[in-house]
Design brief:
The protein has 421 residues and is α/β, with parallel strands linked by helices. The protein is built from 17 helices and 14 strands. Strands 5-4-3-6-9 form a five-stranded mixed beta sheet, with helices on both faces. A five-stranded mixed beta sheet has the order 12-11-10-13-14. Helix 3 packs across helix 4 (45-58). The longest helix is centred in the C-terminal third of the chain and has 25 residues, at 312-336.
């Protein structure tokens, strides 16, 4: 084991600094052999060998296969031991719970999904989520949980891990979500807005650590995750990107947040369901009406599907939603100047019927300079997206933000990683 005198928590000696850098070079794939590490760090061969031996002894690295030869003896590659721990991700949506387990490299190993109404409150919701996590952990070998990510569909105070006045989550305001998971896993826990996790998933998929991106989710509700030069912008109180509750001009529609005229009350998935049901009650026909007659439910997904099948009512609802959302995104484009806008969520699954309207409003209402290099696309719609995003958030917090605090211990702990609350 590396000497405690030099690797003690907080002791940022040259040895610790170089050891940290070597582990991170291998972890990120920037260097995979001893000669590459020497070239990138400027350390001598003997020092590199000593640091690598320390990292291997601490359990961070291991020897891999032999790499290609450049004329002499083939160098042995190094690997980061992503199997040493597990990351637990719990993605709570308005109408579902999805949990997953990831390796330390972010690879999703297992997952499970269940329909669930978030308005049932924190106690029952978190009990159910923990049961689901136990279910998939039981299928895994005995590996220590290093960290937990929880995504919720509302604003979050990232420092404390508590939801802040979430409009669609009655009973959750100020609830200590972090504590429930810390008690269960004795590991550091981070809680964030669900759309932020989707934005981080998109960053990872694009392999662009410096992307300027807006991820706009139009599901039951509406929200946006903002990436500025690859970093999430959460705002002073965790409310950044909460565009679902900006005011729509001339609207008096009551919103679930208690106000009137919110974008979500006019263009969100639950608003589309409300308007579709009213139109069907007045005798509207078409694919959506037949779907209901056959026992199907009116949902954001069924409305999007009906629009794709040419249902006139569904198309009109989806296009109106897209126009209103496009206007709000245009305001973000003018202020934020992203390079990419990614649109996801159940309503956006109507495809080009939805996306074309969004693009049109953005280009009509945004400054030409802000849209000159702008790309507006749909998300890939992969059900693992929030899980990958949660894993990315944990990897960022563990290895980019807090690694020096717990590195000497060999694994993260609540005491080393999170500030006292």
């Amino acid at each position: 084991m590396a000497r405690d005198s030099t690797l003690r928590f907080g002791a940022q000696t040259d040895e610790v600094t170089s050891l940290l850098r070597i582990v991170n070079l291998v972890r990120t794939g920037e260097a995979t052999t001893r000669p590459e590490i020497g070239r990138l760090t400027g350390l001598g061969r003997g020092v590199v060998a000593q640091r690598i031996d320390q990292a291997i002894e601490m359990g961070y690295l291991e020897d891999g296969e032999f790499g290609p030869s450049s004329g002499g003896r083939a160098p042995r590659t190094l690997r980061f031991r992503s199997d040493r721990g597990r990351l637990v991700i719990c993605a709570l949506g308005a109408m579902h719970i999805r949990v997953g387990i990831a390796a330390l490299d972010g690879d999703i190993i297992d997952q499970v999904h269940r329909h669930w109404d978030i308005s049932r409150g924190p106690a029952g919701t978190l009990d159910t989520a923990l049961e689901m996590i136990d279910e998939i952990l039981a299928r895994q070998p005995e590996v220590v949980v290093w960290a937990v990510a929880v995504g919720v569909p509302g604003p979050v105070d990232f420092a404390s891990g508590r939801p802040v006045a979430p409009p669609i989550m009655p009973g959750w305001n100020g609830f200590d979500v972090r504590r429930r998971f810390e008690q269960r896993f004795t590991a550091p826990v981070w809680v964030d807005n669900d759309v932020n996790l989707l934005a981080l998933s998109e960053r990872a998929r694009r392999q662009d650590d410096a992307v300027d991106l807006i991820f706009c989710k139009i599901g039951t509700g509406i929200g946006a995750g903002l990436l500025s030069h690859g970093r999430i912008h959460r705002g002073a109180n965790g409310a950044a990107g909460d565009i679902g509750h900006v005011r729509v001009r001339d609207s008096e529609a009551p919103c679930r947040c208690g106000k009137t005229g919110c974008l979500e009350a006019e263009a969100g998935g639950w608003a589309l369901v409300r308007d579709a049901e009213a139109a069907l009650a007045e005798g509207a026909g078409g694919y959506l009406a037949r779907h209901v007659e056959e026992g199907g439910a009116v949902t954001p997904e069924s409305i999007a599907l009906a629009a794709m099948d040419g249902d006139a009512l569904a198309i009109s609802l989806v296009q109106r939603s897209a126009r209103l959302i496009g206007e709000s995104i245009a305001a973000l484009v003018n202020m934020f100047n992203p390079g990419v806008i990614v649109v996801g969520g159940a309503v956006s699954s109507a495809g080009e019927i939805f996306l074309a309207e969004v693009r049109q409003r953005i280009y009509e209402l945004s400054l030409p300079l802000a849209t000159r290099d702008l790309s507006t696309v749909r998300s890939v719609g992969d059900e693992k997206e929030p899980l990958r995003g949660g894993a990315e958030m944990l990897r960022e917090q563990l290895f980019d933000v807090t690694f020096p605090r717990w590195f000497a211990d060999g694994k993260p702990s609540i005491e080393r990683v999170l500030p006292a609350s």
